[in-house]
Amino acid sequence: MKRFVILAFAALFALSACEKPSGPRIGPDGKPLPKVYRIKNTDKAKIQYRMLDAVNALRQAAGLSPLRLDPKLTAAAATHSRDMSVQNRPWHFGSDGSSPLERVQRTGYPGMFRGENISETYETELETLAAWMEDKGTRDVILDPYTTEMGFAWYQEPSGKIWWTLVTGGPQTNQH
After folding, report:
1. What is the distance, to the nearest Å, from the Cα of residue 118 to the centroid of all Cα atoms in its chain?
2. Phi, psi (5° rounding) for residue 74?
């Protein structure tokens, strides 16, 4: 399974065709600066569907049903990505004290909140997904068998730092 996941990610990275600056950038202290993955406004749908396709490839490899992109879950993810930037810290609670569940409820999402993955990085969405798959907790959100929908959004600061949020949901159920 792990070998297949690694091969699936290698294929996805090869196909992603994301532009990155060439050569390392050096800061005033002589240390290399992070590579900046610049996201254009026109790339929003392409990035969201690239992430959805990658998540669904991983779910398929695990024998799970594919997810659908949900606009209400995406709205909750977008709100939280911007809020993490304002707070300047990656964590699951909003500046107003809201939890992921509360943010999903505020959008009017009719299903059940299943999970949330977050990241503060300069990396692409697929590199971020690969990091999430390396951690059991975030991998479990992606591979939750009761999840049927996902929302995915980000906020990019002028410096290039990206705050990624993936929110999952599914039908109302007694399963946790």
Report:
1. 6
2. -65, -40
